[in-house]
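Task 17 of the worksheet. Students: predict the tertiary structure of the chain below and write it out as structure tokens. Keep your answer in the requested format; marks are given for formatting as well as content.
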Amino acid sequence: MTSKSETPNPTPSKSSDPFGMFGKVQETLLGNMIEMSAAWTEMINDMRAEVSSFVVDRIREDVKTQQDIMNCKTIADVQRVQGEFMEKAMKQYQAETHKLLAIGKASQASISDGKTN
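Model answer:
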């Protein structure tokens, strides 16, 4: 009988063990993610509430403008109503952008300071 030469099963060294590397990365990142998750969730909820409120207000303005246009007697009245609508909408969108940026900055500051509510 001929015997096959058996090669020993090599055990992975620490440097070649990809799972060990992932474990270390996970430990490092997971701690940071847990700390950020409360602030992140609060920011998303604040932004969602702000955007929802803004959309409701804009829909009200849209409906009001449509009613105003239907009550116009001249083309000049329609142009005036449309102009006022656009001017107000631009101001409201600009204000909303500033509110959302402020929410994001406040959240970023709380994450940077390590403070979560």
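Marker's comment: The mean pLDDT is 81. The two ends are 75 Å apart (CA to CA).
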